[in-house]
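Example S7 (structure tokens).
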């Protein structure tokens, strides 16, 4: 990512990867809550990756204490990305990204 994409949130969202890799899903969805998991989430997001939340098959923010804590501290932020599909032309998915 360039400095321009970081300063422009819309360009940054387009540059970030929104697919969660399978090996990441293993620790993200199955690891116990705690400091180790929060550290891995931060490291993952610092690489420019985004974690989809509140969507089918994804983490629900209200039920994940680690993500809630990182959001409250200001390390992560919530953002929406609009993705037109064949069914719904105005569908949006919420992602958690590095603040």
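Recovered sequence:
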């Amino acid at each position: 990512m360039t400095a321009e994409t970081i300063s422009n949130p819309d360009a940054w969202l387009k540059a970030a990867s929104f697919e969660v890799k399978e090996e990441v899903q293993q620790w993200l969805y199955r690891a116990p809550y705690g400091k180790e998991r929060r550290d891995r989430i931060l490291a993952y997001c610092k690489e420019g990756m985004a974690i989809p939340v509140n969507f089918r098959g994804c983490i629900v923010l209200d039920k994940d204490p680690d993500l809630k804590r990182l959001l409250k501290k200001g390390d992560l932020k919530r953002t929406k990305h609009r993705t037109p599909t064949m069914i719904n032309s105005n569908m949006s998915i919420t992602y958690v990204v590095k603040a």
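Notes on this example. The longest strand covers residues 76-82.
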